[in-house]
Amino acid sequence: MMALASFVLLFIGLEALCLGMDRHARQLAGSTLPGPLARCARVLGCMALLGSAMLEIAQRGLSIGLTAWFGLLTLAAMTLVLALSYRPAWLGARLIRALLGRAFGSGPSARP
Amino acid sequence: MRFDQARGLRKSMSWLHTWAGLVLGWLLFAIFLTGTLSYFRNEITLWMQPELHSARPDEKGLDRALSLLGRVAPGAAQWQIALPGERSPVFGLNWREAGETEGRGRPSMVEDDGDGPSSGGLGAQPPGPPGRRAGRENRGADEGAQWRRQGPPEASSGLEAREGRSRGRSGGRGAERSGEERGRERGGRGGGGGGEHGGPRLSMNPATGGMIAPRETAGGDFLYRFHFELYGMDRALARWIVGIATLFMFVAMVSGIIIHRNIFKDFFTFRPGKGKRSWLDAHNATSVLALPFHLMITFSGLLLLANQIMPWAAHYAYGGSVRAMMGEMKNMHAESASPRSGESAPLAALAPLLEAARRQWPQEGVGAITISNPGDANARIEFRQARGVSLATRAYPQSMVFDGRNGQLLEAPRAAEAPGSVRAIWSGFNALHLGRFASPLLRWMFFGSGILGCVMVASGLVMWVIARQRDRERAGHTPFGHRLVEVLNVAGVAGLLLATVCYFWASRLIPADIIGRSRLEIACFFIVWLLALPHAALRTHREAWVEQLGLAGLLTLLLPLLNALGGGAWLPLSLVSGQWQVAGFDVAALGIGALLILAAWRTHTHVPRSSTTTQVGTAGTQLQMEEA
Amino acid sequence: MTSGTAPASRLPALIERTAWLNTGLRVLLAIFGAYGVALQATALLSVTLPLSRIEATMAAIMLGFIVQTLGVIWVIAARTVARAALGIILPAVVLGALLQCLPSGGAA
């Protein structure tokens, strides 16, 4: 159960990192995020990764916890990569666009 | 690339990566695949022995195990009970008669029972494949024999015909040899039939208390052995070959990291349907996303073979006595065997003690129980964790010892003394490679990472061919070297997959009571693998891929059906009754089979792009689009 | 490095220019040279590292694999075969000399 929690946290963190990268922001949000927001997404993503690592370590001890974390990281990243390529809609692309649209009016830049 | 011309580091490393990866790539794929499957060695063996699928958990199982032991081994000096658990549905029972010397250090014994391949309780394997009695051996033994093998040649006694030269100075001192080694020797000599070192071994159905005699099978142990000792050749030689392949892998990985310019920028990048670019993306993704695993598994693989391939350190530091180093490395301390008192006394009730031990280790659980001097006033009951808690101590399971008469706690679980940092790193690598500490979740993640590793190697091999498409178009024909790689790719990747699944099929189709069936199973494996080669050579490249992948996929997909028809617990039943070991195998077979069929289908329907303008053009536009 | 001015350097220059010789020598150096240096390094480290004997041995072996990998990378990346060879032979000579000077003399 805790593993599921850290997986979700990891996944969200990785997705936030994705949003902070121009290429993937276009896949997810339709456009790149403005600089400060992208930086914010990256910081939040890193924090989520760190949080999940701490969760795992707290639960399983340092060595095995880190091992489990790396395993979950691989799993989450693989899921994310496949979803980005084949099913971006499952990643809440629409939600992200809506949120960004609300925050920036018509959006930071023209959408395709 | 030409070495006599100016070139950047990346270019040199790219050359290194290509050739270090290609030369032994097929062997690496085989090592990676069989090694990955080895994470489920016990489960695979269990799947191949449908007799054991009928076992059901039962609360009274422990009592039944005790009474069974009381009947079959009343005078034994020690009983060992591997509890059913995550990795086995049955009790594994074995015992040591009073006369037998133990001569084993404690850690190795723990490994043996807690982790031996048949351990987690898949206990009573029948006398396994003669000459391949992998089932009774464990890593400790491997390590042992391996270090001993490094003995200086001049000490060769010639007594050990098979490994005489290499076994070196430990050759004639039978009395000193550990039980593990005895086991290994019996196994290694071929036809030792059994190679038990702790006495006979039975498996018991918890629900009935009856013994189950499963069919003979090479099981997961064959795959496990194969991944570092190959098959049918001298052990030392095989370890050298695997060690060299591992070194190539390590070099290929490091050079791959150097040439991968944007590890973080391309972290999530996979662009399907773009020919060469997609293959590169897939290769990068499978490599980078599981990079910690790949580096760990390769480096720890080197360490596990270190005594074979880096022997000088031990020779210098220990004046040639590798045995001394071995002992120190394993940190053996002799077990304090309590003598029999001669006064008989009933054994304390185990259930409350087991309960106490389970309370002590709520996460790890209890894996095995050892009862010394059963029935004697001086009996001792030892509980051991199913899994260790720290990698720094080699994931060595803790234990609790109780007085066998009154059930008093004699020895609380000791926190293992913290090892030095170097030792902790070494132990950590070993423990990670072997994965004995892994809970089911972790085990599946190791398995998944291993699969990614297989895809990494396979995609790298395929890319060698794809990257040279333009050369072939320019030349107007396929040069011999290219064709050779194509054929070897098909036979080495798809052919091995096919051979593996045929191995599972063979294990069910060969009648259960045939003598030497494990040899037949192994023969099936190699015959299919061997046949894949001419098939790949005779068919066109694409036909060969499609047919071998498709057949492998189909057969894999049908494995659950075979299991059901072949007397095993079929999937709905195993799911409902919570037999996760069997259900896991079937579900994995469904998943992997579907993926293989998908791969075959995609290869079949694939419209090849010529490497001329179209592909470069689209890739170029893509790049511009992305960088705009 | 040796450029083709002096007559003594004609052979190295030939090796540099002949593709199969250049590549072949590098491959040999990478496989055997780097391994040899790594072996020597493990031997030396195992007796000189200021750790307990077992830990020194373990550390030496782990570092040995790193040395080997770096050696391979050096041999392949070096600008010329001569430099590649120098990068293997020099450490080999130095390590060999140090190993000879060891008080115990070692066993191998």
From TrEMBL, chain A:
It comes from the Bacteria. The chain crosses the membrane at residues 62-86. Keywords: Membrane, Transmembrane, Transmembrane helix. This is DUF3325 domain-containing protein.
TrEMBL record, chain B:
The keyword Cell cycle does not apply. InterPro entries: PepSY-ass_TM. Keywords: Membrane, Transmembrane, Transmembrane helix. Residues 100-211 are annotated as: Disordered. The chain crosses the membrane at residues 21-40, 240-264, 444-466, 487-506, 518-537, 549-570, 582-601. Residues 134-146, 174-188 have a biased composition (Basic and acidic residues). Signal peptide: none annotated. PANTHER family: IRON-REGULATED INNER MEMBRANE PROTEIN-RELATED, PEPSY DOMAIN-CONTAINING PROTEIN. This is PepSY-associated TM helix domain-containing protein. It comes from Uliginosibacterium paludis.
From TrEMBL, chain C:
Keywords: Membrane, Transmembrane, Transmembrane helix. The keyword Transmembrane helix applies. The keyword Transmembrane applies. The chain crosses the membrane at residues 27-47, 59-78, 84-102. This is DUF3649 domain-containing protein. It comes from Uliginosibacterium paludis.
